[in-house]
Design brief:
By secondary structure, this protein is an alpha/beta fold. The protein has one domain: Phosphoenolpyruvate-binding domains (TIM Barrel, Alpha-Beta Barrel). Helices cover about 45% and strands about 15% of the residues. It has twelve helices and eight strands. Strands 1-2-3-4-5-6-7-8 form an eight-stranded parallel beta barrel, surrounded by eight helices. Bound molecules: 3-hydroxypyruvic acid (3PY) and magnesium ion. The site of 3-hydroxypyruvic acid has 7 residues, from helix 9.
């Protein structure tokens, strides 16, 4: 929404895109982080307190500097409508475990004839002033990202990759570790094997693949492994870490 080149185009170029997660209901925090130089922001409507008003305020504050993808709380049509009408550059659908779920996300996100997105006016449509232009371009510009974050999604990865309209796959290592009975143990060999399995399937199909990393140290190796969509850390964690480092320096 903020520039001529869409986030979807950026994904297709294949250059790594590094972002961070926004969880705090604060336009100011979003504005600060949009200015840092990230390639994108991951606005998290799934975990944490963000409702559609806070998500909209975040998009208003950040999007003219930095593309914003909204993670919807669940694969539900109402959330697809709300996030897209608020002007998201793309959607992240959590817990996609089947081709059917992926098809559903695409259908609800694309205007006819490609899908069955509901037609309404909102921020995305310039509050009506750019309605026609938005309707003509939205299907081409909006990035649709599905999260593989359950062992069942890993099993179904090929079928999910066969679904037309999916622009990227984003691995949720934390939920994936939980589904393997090892919550939070991202380094566990079993978790790593499942992560590699998804990555390899995506690379074989030339589908952009991404992953969340809690820390920069964990994120860097992913860049050498073919991941192009990284979300590193989250707003509240950055704030806490920076404050703690500052306090420690003063007290040293
Ligand atoms: C997970 O790790 O489960 C995530 O959803 C990260 O985005
Ligand atoms: Mg998750």
């Amino acid at each position: 929404m903020h520039s001529e080149k869409s986030f979807r185009d950026m994904l297709r170029q294949g250059t790594p895109l590094v972002g961070t997660v926004l969880t705090m209901p604060s336009a100011a925090v979003a504005e600060v982080l949009a200015d840092v130089g990230y390639d994108w922001l991951f606005v998290d409507g799934e975990h944490g307190p963000l409702g559609i008003e806070a998500i909209t305020a975040i998009l208003q504050a950040a999007q003219h500097r930095c593309p914003c993808l909204v993670r919807i709380p669940a694969i539900e049509e109402i959330w697809v409508k709300r996030a897209l009408d608020a002007g998201a550059d793309g959607l992240i659908a959590p817990l996609v475990n089947s081709a059917e779920a992926a098809r559903q996300v695409v259908a609800w996100s694309k205007y006819p004839p490609e899908g069955c997105r509901s037609v309404g006016g909102g921020r995305a449509h310039g509050y009506g002033r750019t309605f026609d232009r938005y309707l003509q371009s939205a299907n081409d510009r909006i990035a649709l990202v599905v999260q593989i974050e359950h062992v069942e999604g890993v099993r179904q990865i090929e079928a999910i990759l066969d679904v037309d309209g999916i622009d990227a796959v984003f691995i949720g290592p934390y939920d994936l570790s939980g589904s393997l009975g090892k919550p939070g143990r991202i380094g566990d060999p079993d978790v790593q094997t499942h992560i590699r399995r998804v990555r390899d399937a995506c690379l074989a199909r030339r589908k952009p693949v991404g992953i969340f990393a809690a820390e920069a140290e964990a994120a860097r190796p992913y860049l050498d492994q073919g991941f192009v969509l990284l979300a590193v850390g989250a707003d509240a964690v950055h704030l806490g870490n920076a404050a703690e480092a500052s306090l420690n320096l003063v007290r040293e």
